[in-house]
Design goal:
The protein has 4 helices and 7 strands; from the N terminus they run E-E-E-H-E-E-H-E-H-H-E. It is of the alpha+beta class. Strands 6-4-5-7 form a 4-stranded antiparallel β-sheet. A 3-stranded antiparallel β-sheet has the order 1-2-3, covered by helices on one side. A hairpin with a 5-residue loop joins strand 2 and strand 3. Helix 1 crosses helix 2. The chain is globular and about 50 Å long.
């Protein structure tokens, strides 16, 4: 990227990241003071981009799920997810999550402008909410390797890394949220 850009077109973000107001492009740079109006504008743009990203990840994960396992059963209330990252010298990280991804009252889950009872109909999909929760638990970096699994495939592959009490619940319908983050490095 050209380093001689006009600073008036860039908004500072967190940790030295910059958002181009015109092109919605982030750039790493040095921090500078911004006005409250610029900060609000930048946050609004970043929220829109984050929601688009979550939706894109959810669509891609569900497409892969359908390709590997077929259609998700109607009666399955949990989402089973994993992301794995490994690199030479950096070790390996495994993120696991089981969630029902219920709407939790985020402003994008419901349209509160609609009259009752329509204001309680969800606008977001279970896959979108699962990706959002995964991001909340593990951060942006691990979204690139995110995969959804069937209940059977998840427990078959990861039963040795899950608590025994959780494995005992695998065939029961109950309210349950679980996530784990395992990182190891032998270098």
């Amino acid at each position: 990227m050209n380093e001689t850009h006009n600073d008036a077109t860039w908004l500072d973000c967190m940790d030295g990241l910059k958002l181009n107001k015109d092109e919605e492009v982030l750039q790493i740079g040095t921090e500078k003071e911004i006005t409250d109006a610029e900060r609000k504008e930048m946050i609004a743009k970043l929220e829109v981009l984050k929601k688009k990203n979550f939706q894109s990840v959810a669509i891609a994960c569900m497409a892969e799920y359908s390709r590997v396992y077929g259609e998700m059963p109607e009666d399955e209330s949990w989402m089973f997810m994993e992301a794995e990252y490994y690199a030479t010298g950096e070790g390996q990280t495994l993120c696991l999550q089981m969630t029902q991804a219920d709407p939790r009252g985020d402003k994008d889950d419901f349209d509160e402008t609609l009259p009752y009872p329509d204001n309680y109909k969800t606008l977001t999909t279970q896959a979108y909410r699962a990706v959002r929760e995964f991001h909340d638990n593990f951060g942006t970096w691990h979204l690139h390797g995110l995969r959804f699994h069937t209940r059977e495939a998840f427990f078959t592959k990861y039963a040795n890394q899950l608590p025994a009490s959780l494995v005992k619940l695998k065939d029961q319908q109950c309210l349950l949220e679980y996530h784990s983050h395992l990182h190891y490095n032998f270098s």
